[in-house]
Structures are given as C-alpha cells and as structure tokens.
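Researcher: Here's the sequence for the chain we discussed earlier.
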Amino acid sequence: MADVFTASGATLSIAPAITTNPANAAAWAALTWTAVGMVESLGEFGDAAGTVTGATLGDGRMRKGKSARDAGDFTATVFEDSTDTGQVALIAAEATNNNFPFKVTLPNKLAPAGADGVMYFKGLVTSKRLNVGGNDNLVRRTFTIAINSAITEVAPTAS
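Model: Thanks. This is the structure I predict for it:
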C-alpha cells in the first residue's frame, strides 16, 4: 500500500499558448515552462461525465448513459506578487482567448531518487480575481482555468 502525502511542495507551471495538444507526455514535458510562484492552494480537477437520461414508454423506467467528459474548471490561489513571472503570465493569459498548457507537479516520488507525478493539460484562463480582505489578510489572487483537454498523467517513480 502506498503512503499518503501532503500537498506541500506541489507546483503549478504555465507554458506559451498552443493550438494543438502535444502528442504524449514527452512532448508536454518538452514545452518551455514558467513556474507560478507563491501558490497557496490548487483546486480539484479531473474528468467527470454527466448523465444523459431518457424514459421508455413500455416499462416507465429511466435509462441512463454517460455524456461527454469534462475535466472541469481548475482554481489556483496565490499570494499576490506582481513581480512573479508565472503570475504575470497567468494575468496575460486571462486577457486572451488562447489555450495555454499547464503542469501540476505533486510531491509524491516513490523514493528519494525518484521523480514526482505530473499532470499536463491545456485550458483557458477565465478569471484573475483579487481578494484584498481585511487588516490581517494576506492579499490573494484566484485564477480559474477552464480545462480544454484530457489530462495527461505521468506516474511518480522510485528512480
């Protein structure tokens, strides 16, 4: 059984806009990545299918099927840093209608010499909301990324 792990050490990176998905994990990895700094939290993401229904007259029962898969809208909350190149790239991406590649790295390598698990996807940056808060609040910005591709996962390794 695998050990559990915390999110401490997870990272988010962005690459320049793309029009087509890279063919495989190696092609995703070969992109030019810029780390996003001061990340406080990364939201949930991943495929979910909706339900399509229809009733039959003969037995009055609903029949159900799966609809198209949707990887969701991913949120990244950061502590505002106007000098961070990753945050600047996210703000610039929000001003466009382009899809950008994203990389989430998890701190879950299987041994000290191993590699962490990685997830790649492309998406639209649809918001860059600022939360100033009160006197004792750290100023945060929440980015929303509408995922527009399947998620390519690379498993963690031991070596």
